[in-house]
Design brief:
- This protein has 437 residues and is an alpha+beta fold.
- It has 2 domains: 260 residues, FAD/NAD(P)-binding domain; 164 residues, no CATH class.
- It is 37% helix and 23% strand.
- The strands form 6 sheets. It has a 6-stranded antiparallel barrel with strand order 13-16-15-14-17-18. Strands 7-2-1-11-20 form a 5-stranded parallel beta sheet, sandwiched between helices.
Length: 437
């Protein structure tokens, strides 16, 4: 049974703009402290973006918490916020509410393997505490009144509140209702913002034979470099080759650095290693063994790309051969007729291509295909001990609207829950303090 709040109670309470992960966590925590809470969201159903997390399975945190998995202009302050409500605290929060979890190499999922478990746990906990969940409400702006309270403005109506939590998200996944409104409203309130860019997003590349291997998925490594060949970011995992460029979890992981560097006006390159478990010398040795086996057991008119299918899908092998030196049309007979030093040259060039296939990154698939946002309101604009804007007392921020984002693995939801928790605790304390004045 929820708290018997009436309209006047909510007018004296907290308004949360955004019913995603951070907003719902803030609502549960603030209401558990006795604060009347309203949550406004453009979507008719709360937590739409949660439902898309982890392909619907919702990897909601990770036991491996290190700041190398996060990006921010102020990693020290981001780390302090994360430490206030860490991965263990998040797991306990859901365990206490009946959610069993599974640990897959540090990646934490609900045992049900469905994101609705996490979303429903948050919404039901909020409703239990008397929170009003107001879906289908598109907030136009917020304003601070002369008496220190706030007005939440819709098209033809406004709500009053003693405190506001801005949890409206970033610009990623617009089909799920996020359009960058949180950043816009923060700027209207005078907060400084780092330019929002897509993150956890597929990358587009300059015209290259690699697009002919579209559809191939293969374990590999991607390294982002600048024009001076300086390594900027690197990640292993399953690469996905597409007709526009590269995708997959490791590409998502390095996309933030790649796009931020591009936005600074620098050229960016991706080096793909299609056999990361082997050194260059080991790769060359394996290629020689594979081609020798082809000479021993396959017809002489067999194309080298077909011979290499023991290592790579055929259409990727053909691309690698072409990139290495236009060898994609060669057969075993062509190879066997080459002199020993020419064979060694072919193997050396092919090994180098396999270990460091270089493509120029031109951009990304944009916010529509991005899973999160890089950039946002600078943490230096807030008291990160409370998540409050000190220039606008009673205005708190949390989640994706802030300049913190993480790689794949539950890190972005961890940030949402940590910052939402702190905003919930602090905002409830704030309105209690106002009542004593």
């Amino acid at each position: 049974m929820g708290h018997p709040f009436d309209k006047s109670d909510y007018d004296q309470g907290i308004a949360i703009i955004g019913g995603g992960a951070s907003g719902l966590m803030a609502a549960v925590i603030a209401s558990s402290k006795g604060a009347p809470v309203r949550v406004f969201d453009r979507n008719t159903v709360m937590g739409a973006k949660i439902l898309a997390t982890g392909n619907g399975r919702c990897n909601f945190t990770n036991t491996k918490q290190d700041m190398e998995f996060y990006h921010s202009s102020d990693l020290k302050q981001a780390g302090a916020v994360l430490g206030m409500f860490d991965a263990g605290s998040v797991c306990r929060f859901f365990h206490d509410r009946g959610v069993l979890t599974v640990n897959k190499d540090g990646w934490i999922y609900p045992k049900s393997q469905t994101a609705t478990t996490i979303r429903d746990t948050l919404t039901l906990s909020a409703l239990r505490n008397g929170v009003k969940l107001l879906g289908g409400k598109e907030i136009q702006s917020i304003s601070r009144e002369a008496d220190g309270t706030y007005r939440i403005h819709l098209d033809a109506f406004s709500y009053r509140a003693k405190a506001v939590i801005l949890a409206a998200g970033g610009s990623a996944s617009g089909q799920l209702g996020t359009r960058g409104d949180g950043v816009r409203m923060a700027q209207q309130m005078g907060l400084k913002v780092k330019k929002p860019l897509p993150a956890l997003v597929p990358l587009t590349i300059k015209k290259d034979p690699l697009v002919k291997a579209s559809g191939v998925r293969i374990a590999g490594k991607v390294t982002i470099c600048n024009a001076n060949d300086k390594k900027l970011s690197e990640m292993k995992g399953q690469l996905q080759l597409t007709d526009y460029g590269i995708s997959g979890i490791p590409v998502f992981g390095v996309s933030q650095v790649a796009l931020r560097t591009l936005d600074e006006g620098q050229k960016v390159y991706a080096k793909l290693d299609f056999l990361p478990e082997c050194s260059l010398a080991e790769t060359a040795d394996q290629l020689k063994k594979t081609l020798d086996a082809g000479n021993a057991y396959a017809p002489s008119d067999t194309k080298l790309a077909k011979v290499l299918t023991g290592l790579f899908p055929e259409k990727l092998a053909a691309v690698l051969l072409k990139k290495a030196g236009e060898y994609d049309r060669d057969t075993l007979l062509d190879y066997s007729r080459r002199k020993a030093d020419e064979q060694q040259q072919l193997i050396g060039q092919l090994a180098a291509t396999i270990c460091a296939y270089r493509v120029e990154v031109t951009g990304s698939r944009g916010f529509e295909q991005a899973q999160t946002t890089s950039g946002g309101v600078l943490l230096s604009e807030l008291d990160t001990g409370t998540m409050m804007d000190e220039n606008n007392p009673g205005l708190f921020l949390c989640g994706e609207v802030l300049d913190v984002d993480g790689v794949c693995g539950g890190y972005n939801l961890q940030w949402a829950f940590s910052s939402g928790y702190l905003a919930g605790v602090s905002s409830s304390a704030y309105i209690r303090g106002m009542d004593k004045v």
